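One thing: can you check what follows?
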Amino acid sequence: MMPSSYIPLFRQFAVLLAFLAIYSPARSQQLNDSTLKARGFWDSRAVNITVVPAVLFAGSAALWGERKNVRELRNRYIPTFRYHFDDYMQYVPALAVFGLNAAGVKGKNHIGRAFVSYAFSAVVMGAVVNGIKYTAKVERPDGSERNSFPSGHTANSFMNATFLHKEYGQYRHPMYSVAGYTLATGTAIGRQLNNRHWVSDVLAGAGIGILATEVGYLIADRIYRDKGARPVLHKDPIPVDGKPSFIEIRMGYAIATTKDLTGNVNGVSAKRGFNMGAEGAWFFHRNIGAGAEFAFTSFPINDDGLIITDPDVTVISDGHYTQPMGIRYLHAGPFFSIPLPKNWFITGKALAGTSLGSDGNVMLRLNPDWQELLERNDFPYLRYKPEGTFSWSAGIGIQKRISRNIGVKAYGAYFDSDHDFDIDIVDDVTDEGKFLYKNIGQEKVRFNHFTFGLGLTAFLW
């Protein structure tokens, strides 16, 4: 069932979609039936405008139930991260547009028309974000306020990145778009690292920011018509036989190929998880390129069947939980692309490299007396430490290029690695609060799994 906090989001998204369907001009005219038939559904402006935001909204909804597991990775490895670059980075793409204009570098529109488009975009973005924030009232991950969903910083940063994309990326060179969206993505990641937003917040915010800019430009187009716009400096669409070099971010679900990743550990199981990553490749031929990926997969652990009978443990704790099993990997190798009609592509990859499992613990939930004594809420009991090892991955995808430099991909991939896990138990605690462990055994864990999901691609051609 869809979370109730998503209802206002999709209600307002439906209103925006209806607006686009009614007012999207095709070659400065409204789309009629014959025009739609001639151009095709996938080539219509309404589809080109809404596909990327729709994918981001879908990703936000899909990860709603996994958001705490995603935050767990942050809390395990960088719990004290506090850097406020995201407060300033969100504005850089928009400042770049006005700065380039001031320096005499012409964009797609004269500065007056560009400003009007930006102003309408900001009004739409602000209205949608704040309307949802104070209706949904989702608590922030740090517990400070109940206005987490969606992320306003992320919406603003992607609105500004799309502004730069439309004024300079589409008009002069796609690297302007790559730079803008890289900064926007950095802002979104920063909101999560600073523990201010959930992953679902930033995905929805990104979709709102992009869609708001498209709506702002549609309104300005209705006002200005052909006044103030300059002819583009490049041909569009790009021929299908171009070399599809790219960078891409992706996310999806992971399913272990073995019955249970935890091997012979009784009472503990891990079968399904999530995968997130980034990859890129440089194509020296329209079908073949070379590149790399960096990604991680996390498998939440169900330890309901784990029974700890140690009497010393039962005295101090009111239960336990097990941190997720995780794997991060860096792979490189060949990438493949086969162009199809209508700007569709079949993609593939065969990569190899190294992977490293994430350390984890079985944590005891301390009872109130011991919380006060130890000045903490939980206490590590068992620890698993995986060793690094060789790994490989292969994948295939179906991709649709929806604009000059943006594509959407549905993918499936397989990952293979075998890790030796050392199992340790807490033996002592030093006066400085450092935990000392002793080894009680070793297990071999096959991290083999399939991943399925969606990717958002920026083409560099």
Observations:
- The chain has a mean pLDDT of 82.
- The chain has twelve helices and 14 strands.
- Residues 155 and 205 are 4 Å apart (CA to CA).
- Residues 111-136 form the longest helix (26 residues).
